[in-house]
Amino acid sequence: MKTNPKMSSLAEQVHSLCQNIPKGKVTTYKNIGEALGVRSYRAIGQALRRSPGMPFVPCHRVICSNGSLGGFKGKLGGKEIGEKRRLLEKEGVRINESKVDLPKYKWRF
DNA sequence: AACCTAATCACTA
DNA sequence: TAGTGATTAGGTT
Predict the structure, then answer these.
(1) Residue from A59, A62, A81, A95 carrying the catalytic annotation
(2) Nearest nucleotide, C1' to the C-alpha of A43?
């Protein structure tokens, strides 16, 4: 049988991967989706938004696949997004006008 | 190049 | 059961 990578809720996998992302690197919803074998990029965001209930999930390391920050804390392009940009810059990620150097910081599994 | 639409999957109430 | 949602890709203008 095909080992269905569905051991736990998708959220659990996403959280695990998020914590697996090294500091100074970012990942995209698509990347996570492919890593988990799912094509619902939206479900990934929902998993982060519905985090287990603890800010222990660096959801700020997950961005859109086009380099945009996507969203943060459940808001798209809001004020929280500014914090996200700040956090990434602090981690060492160079951001260019609300865009991240994906080819340089995109995290590869 | 930029913008818009449609399709997709998972989770919650 | 039905609806929403941190998206993505492609086509058109």
Answers:
(1) A59
(2) B10
pLDDT tens track for A61-95: 999 999 999 999 888 888 889 999 999 999 999 99
C-alpha distances in Å from residue A97, one per residue of A26, A52, A85: 16, 31, 10
pTM over 0.85: yes
What residue has token string 């988990």? A36
For residues A42-54, give the mean pLDDT.
Answer: 85
CA A85, CA A59: separation in Å to the nearest integer?
12
End-to-end CA distance of chain A: 24
Residue A59 bears catalytic tag: yes
Rounded Cα distance, A59 and A15, in Å: 8
